[in-house]
Amino acid sequence: MAQSARAGATHRLRALPEEIVTWEILVRLPPKALLRCRAVCRAWLRVTSAREFLMAHHDRQPSLHFLYGSGYGGGIHEKDILAFDNQATNAVQLHSVARLKEYFYLQASCDGLLIIATLTYRLPGTWFICCNPATRQYAPLGIVARDLYIVGMYRHRPTGEYRLLLQWSRYSDLPDDQRIGFYVFTLGSDRQPRYIGWPEMGSAYFNVPARVRDSLHWYVTSQSKLIVVFNTITESFQRMRAPTFPIGQRRISYIFEADGTLGLHTRNMATKEIVDIWVLQNYEGEAWVLKYQIILPVAEVMGRFEGCDELWYVNVALDDGRVFLLATVAEWVFHIDSDGKLVDSFHRGVGSLCGYGFRHKQSLVPHSFFTALEGSVANTSPFI
């Protein structure tokens, strides 16, 4: 009966024009479903393997909000890469997209690729790894995460190469042949990271960047409340104005991409319960506007859910232009709407969950640099 139903559905799809099947149906499927469709017929295998199709498929994927686990419980391991999908049903909104055998820290995300730092006892030190959860490809980058910090990842449009922006801090144990400042490393290259300068920012701390207009943006609290901008085409730095806050307030602030422009969410640590969300209204004029003030349901959460305290990690998320918050508190993740209403809760284990604003769109686009990297594997260990 099930086989008959599937055969009927396939027959009906084949009755449709090929262009509609390809560019209106197949291109919208999630990666796992699309891979299964390749087994239906050779024509589907051919069209869904073409690079043009895979690029369009990647563009259609939802922008998932990434977290990763610490500890174990509720089906979540400390080696899980987790995603929150606001368009999914409640049961699978927070789900694991990949599980690794090794402990890791998430470092960067770009076009379906992830950079992680693995904590492994097989090799000395901590190593940077590139992986794609959708294709289950995994490759060491050949550079040790010693005193180099990844501050961003980007596609260099003139060459099509994927590159890492690295920082060597003035607080690091600097080797004789290295200089304080920033470096660029091309994935798949056998060359050492290339120095591009800006040593005066060697002491700045960089959070997860927001990518807008071919540039990476960071809100750097240690640099007089400035936005640092890195143009990924010219590979040069500049500065922008940030919103102005009252003097004397201690705030926690993070930048994010908001429908093609920049957003900044911030909390006054004296009150803790109010999240201000600023949006850059005019990019060239650097004009910011306060668009939301969301009061967190702290009293409700602490009264209803065991183990919650006042240590909240808040990320702003967007879905079809609608703003909502993802708050991680101890073992819990809370989905909060723009009115401060608690929409849903997720209990995940005896440890904690970290997010830090990483967003990710799954991709099946092949990349030649994986095969160029020594130790590259696919669909096997360390993926579980």
Give an overview of the whole structure.
Mean pLDDT is 85; it is low at 73-77. The protein contains seven helices and 26 strands. The longest helix has 14 residues, at 2-15. It has a domain at 2-55. The chain is 15% helix and 42% strand. The chain is α+β, with helices and mostly antiparallel strands. It has helices at 2-15, 18-25, 31-37, 42-49, 51-60, 298-304, 369-372, and strands spanning 64-70, 80-84, 94-99, 103-110, 113-119, 127-132, 137-144, 148-156, 161-168, 181-186, 194-197, 210-212, 215-220, 226-231, 236-241, 251-258, 261-268, 274-282, 287-295, 313-319, 322-329, 332-337, 342-347, 352-354, 359-360, 377-378. It is globular. The two termini are 33 Å apart.
The total count of helices amounts to: 7
Helix content: 10-25%
- The beta-strand count equals 26
Summing up helix and strand content along with how strands pair, one would put the structural category as alpha+beta
Cα shape: globular
Task: Write down the Rg.
Answer: 22 Å
Q: Give the DSSP E fraction (strand runs of 2 or more residues).
A: 35-45%
